[in-house]
Amino acid sequence: MKTAKKDTSELSTAVWFGGLTVRTLFIAVLALITTRVASPQIEHIWSLYETPGDLVRVILGLGVCVWLVVHIFILPKDRAGYRTWLYLGVLLLPLSVLCAFIIW
Known about the structure:
This protein is mainly alpha-helical. The longest helix has 26 residues, at 13-38. The chain has one domain (30-103). The chain is built from three helices and no strands. The protein has helices at 13-38, 52-72, 79-103.
């Protein structure tokens, strides 16, 4: 059996910074969209107890937002992860910003 060759080339600073920036912005926009969608329909936060649907939506939204914020600090472990985020970010980031703009 042949073992996989490990790529010893270094990751350029531009690719690392670009991938990290796009990934962080994308996850932050997803957290903002989740916050907006999970907010209660009625203006007062204390009215959550009157409508159980709003209470469930706010609790699920809070859980998803916490999960997304935690994943901002869990960085990709390999060089390919940064390249993938950089390449996908060109398409995903403008689409997510547009989606956030329409929802807001």
